[in-house]
User: What shape does this take?
Amino acid sequence: MKHALYCGLALAGLAPLTAFAQSSSPDVVPATDTTRALIAESDPFLWLEEVDGEQALDWVKEQNADTARRLESNPLFDELYAQAKATLNSDSRLPAIDQKGEWLYNYWRDAEHPRGVYRRTSLEEFAKDAPAWETVIDVDALSAEEGHQWVFRGMDCLPKHPEHCFVRLSPGGGDAVVIREFDSVTKTWLDEGFYLPEAKGSMGWIDADTVFVATDFGPGSMTDSGYPRIVKRWQRGTPLDSAEVIHEGAQGSVAVSASRRRSAGGDVDLVREGTSFWTAAWSQLDDSGKHPLELPPTATIAGVFQGRLVIELKEHWDRKGTVYPQGAVLVADTGALRGGDGEIDVMITPDETTVVESVATMDEAVLVTVLDNVRGKIFRFVPGPEGGWTREQIAFPDDGSLQVVTKDDESGNFFARFESFTTPPTLYHVASGEKLPQDVKAQDPSFDGSRYETKQYFATSADGTKVPYFVVLAQGMKLDGKNPTHIFSYGGFRNALKPSYSGSYEALYGAYGKLWLDRGGVFVLANIRGGGEFGPAWHAAALKENRERAFEDFEAIAEDLAARKITSPQHLGIEGRSNGGLLVGATMTRHPELYGAVICGVPLLDMKRYHLLLAGASWMAEYGDPDVKEEWAYISQYSPYQNLRQGVDYPATFFYTSTRDDRVHPGHARKMAAKMESFGQEVWYYENLEGGHGGSSTNDQLAYRLALAYTHLWTQLR
Assistant: This one.
C-alpha cells in the first residue's frame, strides 16, 4: 500500500508491500464441512469466495453478460468506449521513464501492443520530438511464445552492470510474480541465471553473483498475511535451498526483506521486518553480523546519502532529551543508531499546511517533494558549508502535482512531471545545481482545459475538522443543484490524492475529460482523513476505532456540494476503489439518501472476514482485528456487507473487480452484489478474468471498464 498502496497504481488501491508479490490461495473458506455449514447459516453467499469454483464462476459469467446486455445497449456506451480507447492509446501520452545508466527506459501499451513493450532510448534521442525507441522486451510476443498472458511488472538492474537485470512478470496481472534474470545488453533471458517461481516475494542485487531473496521457501516460510517471513543471501550457481538465512521474522509479522542501499559515501545493507503494516524493526548488516537500529517503530528509511541514513518520522521521537517532530526528515550516522558515536541532523520539518510526500537521494543532493495544501513543490537539499543543510526550491509551475520521475545519482540531474486537473502532464529536466527546470515534452490535451476552472473548498466534518476538496467544472456553470457530479476519494493508508490530468498514466480517476466534463459533468476529488494529504497525523486521525471519521468527512463534502448548489443527491455519483471501495460501500449503507449512484471498485466490503482473505491480515493495523470483541464492536458499525438492510432504497451500484486480484479478494464484491440483488436492489457487476488489483491488464480492458462505469453514471444521474 505505498509507492503506496503507489494503490496506483499509482495509487491504484490498497498499497502493496512494494518489495513483495505473494501467491494466493484459491479457496479461503474454512476447511471442515461443519465450519462451512455454521458460517453459511449466517452468510448464504460464502460460496462466492471460492475464486475459481465452478458455481462461483458461472455466477460471474452470468453477471458479466447481464451487465453487458444492459449497459452496452445504451447508445452512449459505444461513444464512451471509443473515447476512452483513444485517450488511453494516444501516441502523445507522456512516457513514464526510468533512467538506467545512459538509457531511458519506458513501458508502453497501445492498440498495436496491448500487453506492452519495454523499450529504451538515449538521452540525446529522447530530446527529439519523435524519438526512436529500441524494443527490449515485447510482452505480447513473449506471451504468445510462452503461452502465458504475461503482465510486465518492471526490470531492476545492478548499477553499472546492465548485463545483470531482474524482470518481474505476473501471470494474469496479480501481485504474485515470476522473477527471471535478463541481459539488457544482448536482450536475452539467462536460462541458467537467477530465477524465482511465481510468488509474492522479492529479490535484490548485492553484487553480480549475490542477491537478497525473500520468497515462499515452503511450509512455514510465509507470514499470516501471506508474505515471506524469511530472507536469505543467495550465491549464483547454488541451490536456493542452500542459501544463507540472514533473518527470520515472526509468523504474525507482515513481511521481511533485505536490500543494499547504495550511496557515494558507502553502501548500507538493511534488513526490515514489518511487524505490522505501519511498524517495522530495522537492522544493519555488515561483516560483523546483524545490528538492530534504534528507530521508532513507525519510522521509514527513505535512502542513504553519503553513507548516512535518511529517515522519515511518522510520529514524535523523544531521543535522549531531544524531540524530533512528527513528519520530519532526519539524516543519521548508522553508528548513532547502533548505540555508538555519530550525529543525527534535521533536514526538514513540516508545518500546518506543508508535509513531506517523498524523498529521493543522489550522490551530492537530496530531493524532497512536499505537498502544500495538496499542491506539489520540490526542494533540493545539499550539505551546508558549516554544517546543516542548504535548501532551494525548484521553480516548477504552481497549483498542480509534482513527481520526481527518475534521476541520475552521479550527475545530480533529474526529470520531474507536473500536471493538474486541466493541464496535461509535462516532463521537465533539471540539471544539477539549477533552479529553473527545462520542459522536455508535454502530452497533447485530451480535452480543452481552458473551458474549465478548478476550485478548492473546505467542508466541515462532524467533529469540526475542515476537510479540503477540489471541484473541476465548466466556467460560468449554472449552480442550480442539477449538475451531474462525480466524487472520487480514497481515505486510507496514507495515500494522498493529488490533482491528476484526465487519462494520464493509469487513469486512476478515469478519463473524466472527454467522458465526463465535456458532457456537462462536474468532477470532485475529496481529500478526506485517512489519506496522506496533510501528513501522518491526517492518516492517523482515521485509524481503527476512528475509521468513521473518513466516512464523516466524505459525507460532509457531499452535503457541502449540495449546500453550494453545485449538485444534489439525485445527481451525485460517488466512486472509490480498493480501500476507497470500502469508503463508498460504507457511506452508501450509512447514508444512502446522499447519493444517486455508486461505483465500487476492487473493494473491501466484508470486514468480518477481510483478515482471512488473501493479504487482508496485513491491514489489521489500519482497520483492527474483527476477531477481537472490542475491535469488532467498532468495525461492525460500518462494515458494508453486514450493514445492508432489506427494505432500504440504496443508490444504483456498479461493482467491478478481477478474478486474478490476489490482494483484495474478489469475494468482497461478489458477495455484496449478490446480497444487494437478493434484496431487490439495482446492481451492475463486472469481473475481469485477469488484471490483478488494478482491474485490467490492457488499455482495451481499462477502456471497456471505464465505458461501463461512465455509462452507469450518466444513466443514473441525469
